[in-house]
Amino acid sequence: MESEWAIDRMRLFQLRRDHPDWTLKQLANAVNYSLSWVKKWLRRFREAAAPSVAMFQAQSRAPKTRSKQIIAIVRDAILGLRDTLKDRYGRVVGAKTILYHLHRDSALQRQGVYLPRSSRTIWNVLKTGGRIPVATQDYHPVERPEPLRHWEMDFGQLGNQVEFMSVVDRGTSILVSTAATRHYTAETALLAVAQLLLLVGLPEKLRFDNDTRFVGNWLTDGFPSPLMRFLLCLGVEPDLVEPGKPYHKPFVERSIRTLKYECLWLDRPSDPKATSDLLDNYRHFYNHERANQSSACGNQPPYRAFPDLPSLTNVPERVNPDAWLRHYQGRVFKRRVARNGTVSVGNYAYYVNYVLHGEKVGVLLDAPSRQFVILYKNAV
Q1: Model pTM score
Q2: Across the chain, where does the E strand assignment appear?
Q3: Could you say which architecture CATH assigns to the domain 150-305?
């Protein structure tokens, strides 16, 4: 290749000699090289004492000079100035101040040693000398709960075609469920969770984010969504993630990424049925055959790392639909009275008084009596 490049440089030299009126851009187009390449080699042609074959050869990229090393005595002087100048200036001095005093050190000047002139060199000496603390981030692994006691849940999407719900156990990294449909709503999400609990059993907690399909919209003012009330009636604690902190449910977030990269993006299923079949097969591979590098599994498939799993409590045949009330006893929800004198709580309208139209009231939940108490200006 070097011989071919040398021929191209000779051609540039000839073109410049035969067409001195050509612009640099015309020369670059003629030799089919970049403008910077043409400028570089024309400069080398001008710097050459006389035309020769060596003029067309590439120059070595090795550094022409070696960087000078900071000897121990200079390094000690820099660290000493950092410590002693603090009392003179009343503050911790920086690299430029140290350079100023370093080059006025008569002892170092008499010895004729090399003194750095760059602030960057001073900073490097201060760092290696321990004068500048290096920020370190301690690693705190996620505390793992008992197997099959605490799950994480979230939605994943494959373009605009299919949406799937991934459920992962925090204690074992087991991929519990990967149900897919065209698009999840609050109703279909609740149905999918109900089917999962009927099939697998009841965990103690279920962690999810503030997706409106899970918790309802912001107008509810903390009033539990149908999914949350359903879980509380079954004895499953809803574990909400703080807004803007998806890293608080890292296992399901990672599972969605893995499902996309290792499964869905490879086969690209076009409908929910094909997606469900594909995810079911992959979930078996994920749990039984795929090596999992999580701290809990130790580079083993989850079911091999946890061969003896506890059995979960089955969904009871009878459920008290008002069992969720005791979890919200005494909670007050803010509402504004509508034109017809009602307030809306949990998609139900409750009449207050049309005279209070437009006023803000508090709706207190009285669980023992199963009633809402309206609070208005410190009155009941």
Answers
A1: 0.65
A2: 150-158, 162-169, 175-181, 205-208, 237-240, 332-336, 342-345, 348-351, 360-366, 371-375
A3: 2-Layer Sandwich (3.30)
